[in-house]
Amino acid sequence: MISKKKIYVFAVCGALTTILYYIANIVFLCKIYENEIENNFNVDIEKIIREYVGVLEPQFLNVNPRFSKLRLKLITNFKYSDYNHSIWDVPKNWISYKHGLYNPDDSSIGKLLKALKFEPILKVSNALKGTQLKLLLHLNSSQKVLFKPQWYSKETVIEGPVYSGKDRHSAEIYSFYLGAVLNISWMPLVVGRKINLQEVYQKGDLLLKKTMFIKATGEYCLFGKCYYCRKEEYICGDNDNLIEGAAILIIPGILKKVRSPWQRTYKNHLKAKWEENKDYCKSLKKGIDHEKLLDYVDLSIFDFLIQNGDRHHYEIMKGNIIFLDNGKSFGNPNKVFFDILAPLYQCCLIRNTTWNNLQIVSGGTLTSLVDEILKSNEQTEIITEYNKRAVEQRLLFIYAAVNYCIKKFGVESVFTTC
């Protein structure tokens, strides 16, 4: 027979077990709630930034008085102008330039852009590196040019994740001019160019010719050689065998590839650490040079404007991050992928120079100046009005994100002169 004392002990133990069970469940539920907060961090930040847009001061909405000086400089230096046979000496001289891949104050830029568009092609080969179809054009004076062909019309909207679809040649062109307006010279010169596929076949090497074919109707077609290149996916010329694309100037030098700390997993069911941890940048600061972190912020701001969410690696030249490979931009003007801006709103750091450059192009002048130069050079619209309006809206989001950081940490913590 069980004594009353034992029954009492069992009752107490049972009660304690029940209490511990509920405590364990409460802890478990709190952990789930905490994880939900972490997982929703980027969503919460988006909501906050959108709210900050509504209270932006007039200086961020109106035309900046300093804009006219910037406009005059760019109109003078970046519009096409006539060149001579020595034009390819210009990029060779830029190799020693320490502040970018090109010198934005060089009056030869317009001449070089025109040469990039019209100089005769001497030979052609497949550009084998990378995942997308590209050609390597050889011009006079041993100058090499990367050519990305057109896959989509400018009106095409790319649905799905931010990295969906093939490269957009128009994105490469517009991104270059947008970068120029923002005083970003760590990117190669880019122009729109048409090339003749029949000429490409005639001047191509043997490997290139193996990746081309001629239809019974006489059109020349190309599927190229790259990681994702397939015979079933090809491009053909028009009635004159012409195809459109982006011609990208190759600056000699060694590129070093570095994995992005904000790289995506590219898996719908799996998030990266930076997508879940609101304190991700705190741990990152311990292992990354401060100035390099500012480079990441600079690039994230630019990528957010163009909506390039496919920056899984960075290329470094002359010790600086290169704004290279912008083809996955301007996919969908109806969506805003806020997480591209994560380096800014997670680290809450920005260079004074970057902030000043952003403020100069307020009040709709960012895209209007790009348009003004492009209409003179390309004589056609590169992206749609919907995309342009989206760029201006994203600029307001960037202003709001910086103001959020200032409110949270103070001016001295956010801005740096590095």
Note down, in words, how this protein is organized:
The protein has two domains: 173 residues, no CATH class; 165 residues, no CATH class. Helix 3 runs parallel beside helix 14 and helix 6 crosses helix 14. The strands form four sheets. A five-stranded antiparallel beta sheet has the order 1-2-3-8-4. Strands 5-6-7 form a three-stranded antiparallel beta sheet, with helices on one face. It has a three-stranded antiparallel beta sheet with strand order 9-10-11, covered by helices on one side. The protein is an alpha+beta fold and 418 residues long. It has 16 helices and 13 strands.
Describe what is shown at a glance:
The chain is an alpha+beta fold and 418 residues long. The chain is built from 16 helices and 13 strands. 44% of the residues lie in helices and 13% in strands.
SSE map:
Layout (H helix, E strand, L loop, with lengths): L3 H36 L1 H13 L13 H12 L10 H5 L15 H10 L4 E4 L8 E4 L5 E6 L19 H13 L8 E7 H7 L2 H4 L2 E3 L5 E3 L12 E2 L5 E8 L6 E4 L13 H4 L3 H6 L4 H17 L6 E5 L2 E3 L19 H6 L2 E2 H9 L4 H13 L7 H25 L1 H4 E2 L2
Parallel strand pairs: 12-13
Antiparallel strand pairs: 1-2, 2-3, 3-8, 4-8, 5-6, 6-7, 9-10, 10-11
Helix pairs in contact: 2-15, 3-14, 6-14, 11-15
